[in-house]
From TrEMBL:
It catalyses: D-maltose + ATP = alpha-maltose 1-phosphate + ADP + H(+). The keyword Transferase applies. It comes from Streptomyces pimonensis. Its EC number is 2.7.1.175. Monomer. The keyword Nucleotide-binding applies. Coiled coil: none annotated. SUPFAM superfamilies: Protein kinase-like (PK-like). Gene3D superfamilies: 3.90.1200.10. InterPro entries: Kinase-like_dom_sf (IPR011009), Mak_N_cap (IPR040999). This is Maltokinase. Belongs to the aminoglycoside phosphotransferase family. Residues 26-121 form the Maltokinase N-terminal cap domain.
Length: 469
């Protein structure tokens, strides 16, 4: 293993002020920007690290910046989210980097230079892998790795171009480095859960090879914050296809997906079993269920306020939550454990050998970390997958609802074979979770893909008018 490299660095004063007007315009256009709907009126610096001084042809800054976003035009500025940025600096951009342009700096320490999204560029991406390989410490950045896993140097990087909530760089088809964009201090389940599963020897989740954190105390003001998890390197599943693509392919051919769905049920149960071994489980009684039901009901009210198409169904949907509360009031209890938290077909990768892996344990990114890390009934993940089969079947014309019914049944059977417990034996909890997810999806689609809104609305109709799962 190489010696850890420790480097202290300083950044030029006035750096953020010189980037401010460019970032205000560029940041809200990024797919991973979470604060859509409210303009960015400024930034505060959480941390800045100079990874390459801008003396030669290329400079590189790692920034953690917090946005300021007033909720109403002219209203008081609200501290917004903290984002991780990789800012490249060059005198001029070569044509291959044109799509990465952020802008031309007109004032401050970088005046006259061009800044750009550095993850598109080979040298900055290589530098990150090298820092992980050598367990570097650069300013407040700590690059760590599992000493049992080898990282070869010289792997060629490429930035992934798929639509995603974060950014990922693939190195020579050997590793994938996911760099979180909206970052929070504290334990991040996207690192915590795969590490726990690796310790359990669960082969269904790529084990973290290395990770990047910002030291506590990078953010100003007492009390010192916990580290920010900024990125995770893991083995790249070569030639993998995700479950969503596979499902659509089978639908287009008029083929069933039941064998795959059953397999996915088994794999989900395998991961759940390993998580229950690795991390604490708890029992949820009426008080905890009541809190959960209140949360679901509040999300429904907020969603119905935001999306008028949901309003006619609100009473029917609410009944899914009150039924759960009634059951808990009768004394029914549930076991809760750590779960994936945002499971859908797109989070399942099938290797060319037919092996499934589950990825992206971040949970629903919009929810607070503490909430995402709470033990929950496994039915939550099952409901997410059931929604996904429904999505696939309704995203084709004409819709194939029977295809989804067969997949849903096969998935639950596969789950039951491995877990020894069929999730369908808990229909009230399942309906509540499916309803909560469908409500979330209605808001998600209304905001991001309005043409998809009929897909979750069809589920809303079913869930509001029947108690069939
Ligand atoms: N270990 C892996 N092997 C191969 N591809 C992967 C791996 N992890 C992620 N991917 C690809 O990267 C995409 C984004 O990963 P994901 O963890 O879901 O990021 P995000 O949270 O940004 O959506 C996935 O949809 C998948 O195509
Ligand atoms: O991929 P993310 O973790 O960022 O999740 C968000 O985007 C998903 C869409 O890309 C969205 O998922 C919904 O659409 C999927 C098909 O595109 C479908 O398989 C899922 O079941 C459905 O929920 C997800 O809700 C959102 O959080």
């Amino acid at each position: 293993m190489s010696e850890a490299v420790t480097r202290t660095v300083t950044t030029p004063p006035g750096l953020l002020a010189s980037l401010d007007p460019l970032l205000r315009e560029w940041l809200p256009r990024q797919r991973w920007f979470a604060g859509k709907g409210h303009p960015v009126t400024g930034f505060s610096l959480v941390a800045a690290t100079e990874l390459l001084p801008p003396t030669a042809k290329l400079g590189l800054y790692h920034l953690l910046v917090r946005t300021r976003q007033p909720l109403q035009p002219g209203g008081p500025e609200q501290p917004g989210d903290c984002y991780q940025l990789f800012i490249g600096v060059r005198e001029a951009l070569p044509p291959r980097l044109a799509p990465a342009l952020i802008g031309h700096v007109t004032r401050g320490p970088l005046a006259g230079l061009t800044v750009y999204e550095a993850l598109h560029d080979t040298r900055p991406a290589e530098l990150l892998l090298e820092a992980l390989r050598t367990q570097a410490r650069i300013g407040g950045l700590r690059f760590e790795r599992d000493p049992r896993q080898e990282i070869r140097s010289g792997l060629v990087p490429r930035l992934m171009t798929v639509e995603q909530s974060n950014s990922s760089v693939v190195y020579g088809d050997t590793f994938i480095l996911k760099l979180l964009r909206r970052v929070l201090p504290g334990t991040n389940p996207d690192l915590e859960l795969p590490l726990a599963l690796a310790r359990e020897g669960c082969p269904r989740v790529p084990p973290p090879t290395a990770w990047l954190v910002a030291e506590p105390g990078v953010a100003p003001g007492p009390p010192p914050t916990e580290p920010y998890v900024l990125g995770v390197l893991q083995p790249f599943v070569q030639g993998a296809t995700d479950g969503w693509e596979l499902a659509l392919r089978e639908l287009a051919k008029g083929e069933d997906f039941v064998a795959e769905a059953r397999d996915l049920g088994r794999v989900t149960a395998e991961v759940h079993t390993a998580l229950a071994r690795a991390l604490p489980t708890v029992t949820l009684g009426h008080a905890q269920l009541r809190t959960m039901v209140v949360g679901m009901t509040e999300r429904l009210e907020a969603a119905a306020h935001a999306v008028p198409a949901l309003r006619p169904y609100a009473d029917g949907l609410r009944s899914a939550f009150t039924a759960l509360d009634d059951l808990a009031a009768e004394g029914r209890v549930w076991t809760a454990q750590r779960v994936h938290g945002d499971l859908h077909l797109g989070q399942c990768l099938r290797s060319p050998a037919g092996e499934w892996s589950l990825i992206d344990f971040e949970g629903e990114p919009a929810r607070p970390l503490a909430e995402r890390r709470m033990p929950q009934p496994v039915v939550r993940d099952v409901a997410g997958m059931l929604r996904s089969f429904d999505y696939a079947a309704r995203s084709v014309a004409p819709a194939q609802p029977d295809w989804a019914v067969r997949c849903r049944a096969a998935y639950c059977s596969g789950y039951a074979e491995t877990a020894g417990r069929d999730p369908r034996t808990d229909p009230v909890l399942m309906r509540a979770y499916e309803t909560d997810k469908a409500v979330y999806e209605v808001v998600y689609e209304a905001r991001h893909r309005p043409q998809w809104l009929p897909v979750p609305l069809a589920a809303v109709h079913r869930l509001a008018t029947t108690d069939l799962i």
